[in-house]
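Input (structure):
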């Protein structure tokens, strides 16, 4: 994808690139570890509910922005999202990167629905990961909004434009219900002198 297409905050910027006879290189914004690695560093390999919910909100926004310029990722997974580097002011922003499989969604193989569904399934405990177990098993002890989100997505057909604002507002309502602040410390951030409240309830990966 062209660098000008990627100059939106939640998608990793490509400030410089070139093509030489023998090689191609791209210089990318320096980011933190990806979400898969950050989660693996956590106790019990899980994020708290606060971090999980805010990650869902930011990653859904990033997917919407990618779709807004006519592309689908086809490779939505925690390893393709990362916060800004901890040494910068963008440490609170989650970036989407690695567009090697991205295509314009006029193609007939995958749709915008698939990107949204993949992200929702990762967020809601990877519902399709274990053959034979139903949704109720994986949504046990989670807020009812998770099941509502997946039900909305299940109702979409190939050509539908996902109701992004509906998804976001549902998650934001859950955030307010749990009294979670948007700029609370991420689980992977070091403790600072500023005390921030955080839910101790563990959320899905």
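Output (sequence):
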């Amino acid at each position: 994808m062209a660098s000008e297409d990627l100059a939106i905050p939640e998608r990793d910027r490509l400030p410089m690139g070139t093509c030489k006879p023998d090689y191609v290189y791209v210089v990318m914004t320096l980011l933190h570890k990806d979400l898969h690695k950050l989660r693996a560093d956590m106790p019990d390999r899980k994020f708290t509910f606060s971090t999980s919910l805010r990650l869902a909100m930011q990653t859904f926004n990033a997917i919407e922005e990618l779709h807004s310029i006519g592309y689908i990722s086809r490779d939505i997974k925690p390893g393709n999202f990362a916060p800004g580097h901890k040494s910068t002011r963008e440490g609170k922003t989650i970036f989407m990167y690695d567009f090697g499989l991205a295509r314009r969604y006029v193609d007939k193989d995958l749709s915008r629905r698939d990107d949204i569904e993949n992200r929702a399934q990762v967020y809601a405990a990877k519902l399709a990961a274990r053959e034979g177990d139903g949704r109720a098993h994986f949504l046990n002890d989670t807020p009812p909004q998770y099941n509502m989100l997946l039900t909305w997505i299940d109702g979409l057909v190939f050509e539908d434009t996902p109701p992004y604002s509906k998804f976001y507002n549902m998650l934001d309502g859950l955030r307010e219900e749990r009294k979670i602040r948007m700029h609370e410390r991420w689980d992977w951030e070091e403790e600072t002198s500023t005390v921030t409240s955080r839910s101790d309830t563990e959320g899905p990966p």
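Notes: Helices lie at 35-40, 49-68, 112-123, 135-138, 144-154, 164-177. The chain has a mean pLDDT of 75.
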